Amino acid sequence: MVNRLVLECVVVKPVQNKTSPSGIPHATFLVEHRSFQIEAGLKRQAWCKISVVASGLALQPIAKQLVIGSKINIAGFISQHESKNGLAKLVLHAEKIDFLTHGE
């Protein structure tokens, strides 16, 4: 089954670093995407905020450089996470992060 998302976006909340009980590092942060897309022949604005998790040692050096305002391109897959109060949200699990520009 295909589950692939590529998103050009801006970091809007700082990175939070955690390590799982099994020792895997996880960097989580929030990004925002804004663009214009063509739908049914008409131009429309597309906008979203999505949480991102970058897991494993390979992405940690990049995640450490992320600051609010960093423009990045992220490729990965999406999965549903549930908060402690039972609310579901989609999270982008990054497999590749490329800088377009560094932030502030």
What do these coordinates show?
It is a single chain. With 104 residues, this protein is mainly β. The chain has a single domain (5-101), classed as OB fold (Dihydrolipoamide Acetyltransferase, E2P), CATH 2.40.50.140. It has one helix and five strands; from the N terminus they run E-E-E-H-E-E. Strands 1-2-3-5-4 form a five-stranded mixed barrel. The longest helix has 4 residues, at 60-63.
Quick structural summary:
With 104 residues, this protein is mainly beta. The protein contains one helix and five strands; from the N terminus they run E-E-E-H-E-E.
What are the key terms here?
104 residues; mainly beta; 5-stranded mixed beta barrel; 1 helix; primosome; DNA-binding; DNA replication
Q: How is the topology of this model organized?
A:
Elements: E1 5-19, E2 25-39, E3 42-55, H1 60-63, E4 71-82, E5 88-101
Question: In CATH's first tier, which class applies?
Answer: Mainly Beta
Main sheet specs: 5 strands, mixed, barrel
Helix count, DSSP H or I runs of 4 or more residues: 1
Tell me the fraction of residues in β-strands, as a range: over 45%
CATH T-level topology: OB fold (Dihydrolipoamide Acetyltransferase, E2P)
Arrangement of strands in the largest sheet: 1-2-3-5-4
- Rg, alpha carbons: 15 Å
Task: List the uncertain runs.
Answer: none
Question: By helix and strand content, what is the structural category?
Answer: mainly beta
In terms of quaternary structure, the protein is single chain
Quantity of strands, as a count: 5
Shape: globular
Q: Mean pLDDT across all residues, rounded?
A: 95
Which series of helices and strands comes N to C?
A: EEEHEE
Amino- and carboxy-terminal Cα gap: 39 Å
- Overall tally of structural domains: 1
CATH architecture: Beta Barrel
CATH superfamily: Nucleic acid-binding proteins
Helical content stands at: under 10%
Protein name: Replication restart protein PriB
Family: Belongs to the PriB family.
InterPro entries: NA-bd_OB-fold, Primosome_PriB/ssb, Prisomal_replication_PriB
Organism: Thorsellia anophelis DSM 18579
